[in-house]
Write a structure and sequence with these properties.
Elements lengths: L5 E5 L2 E5 L9 H9 L7 E5 L8 H16 L3 E5 L3 H9 L7 E2 L3 H14 L7 E8 L2 E10 L6 H5 L8 E5 L3 E4 L1 H16 L3 E5 L3 H9 L6 E3 L3 H5 L8
Helix pairs in contact: 1-2
Length: 237
Amino acid sequence: MTTALSIEHKMGSTWITLPDGISMYNSRDIEKSIVGNLEKSSSLVLDFSNTHNLFSSGLGLIIRIRKAATEMECKLCLVNVTGKIRELLSALNLSKLLTIYATDVEYELSRSDLWKEGAIKSLGFLFVAQIDNHIYRINLSGEMINGAKFDLCEKFIPSPEIAIYIFDFSNLELIDEIGATQLLLLTSKIRNSNGECRAFGLEGWLRETIEVLGAATCMRFYDNEKSAINNLIKSKL
């Protein structure tokens, strides 16, 4: 049985208990509900007590919520995070940018120190790649610019068993010539491994920048995630 999203106010924070399943079909509705409550509190808690698995849609949701909370100067914490999900966040370097607690009791005990910190960490550049239902989902977030850390992007190895690679650019804020070069190297590596790169989430000016910098030659663009995933039979570029 699927649990519903729960929103309440406790411990001086807006407390969001996430459902057990987060997919591309409900992640945007969940995001709207959460963002709509950001202005009501200076702190936001995402409770994972009902969430036991986290896939690409859930990872994208966390990144977007973090971005929105940062813009509104709202402190974000994750509580009741299982060891499995914590390991996933750590492997993707997201644990360095998120405040995570194993239980709500641990969160409550640390609140006084947490609110004294005040500083909000910079998002920088995030590269998240995960296989989901025989599709490689790649989320590029933050700023792909000179000085960013591209180590995970450079170390990425395409899988010979995966034909479709879906790129989510909805959280990408900026790209320069260095970032475009990294993107072209990544997509070329995928194409040379007989993979197809499909992209969505690009704002008009950002897509134009990527095209002008020559980083779009190995990608096919789609209006949204659903259209990028539909018709999984490979098409020729």
